[in-house]
Amino acid sequence: MKYEVGAKIKEYREKKGLSQKELAQLMGLGNTRVSNWELGISRPDVNMLSLLCKALDVSTDDLLGLEGQKNTPPPGGAGGISPTRRAVEDIMSKMTAEELLQLRGSALTILAQRSQEASEVPLPKNP
User: Fold this and answer.
1) Is position 37 within any domain?
2) How many whole angstroms separate alpha carbon 85 and alpha carbon 74?
3) Could you tell me the CATH number of the domain that includes residue 15?
4) How many C-beta neighbours within 10 Å does residue 3 have?
5) Tens digit of each residue's pLDDT (9 = 90 or more) over 92-104
6) Integer CA distances (angstroms), 119 to 48, 113, 115, 116, in order
7) Is the dihedral of CA 20, 22, 26, 31 positive or negative?
8) Distance CA 29, CA 25 (A)
9) 98: Cα within 13 Å, side-chain hemisphere
10) Total number of domains constituting the chain
11) Could you give the maximum distance between any two Cα atoms of the chain, in Å?
12) Residue 70 falls inside a structural domain
């Protein structure tokens, strides 16, 4: 399956009446990022999809061109998603773009702190 996400981003951005620069600013990104997505030079990573969908007021299925397609979960459960993850995704789906951007910043700060703490732990010496 080929995802035409760049064309979809452009379509929904224009429907929203936003320029590429305005969308980038709304998401806290550099000016060329949206252009690169729309031109197919790069694609938004999974971490940006939620923020992008919020900014464009569109579902991930619509943005990825999956609307109307049957989604068959694998055997043994509803897509293998844990109840905790489902709850987090539900909460995040109700957050504004600004709240998602703040959450992303906080998560990156915590990850950087943990990474630094991990690098400060002395390694055991070889006998």
Assistant:
1) yes
2) 17
3) 1.10.260.40
4) 12
5) 888 888 888 888 8
6) 28, 10, 6, 5
7) positive
8) 6
9) 0
10) 1
11) 66
12) no
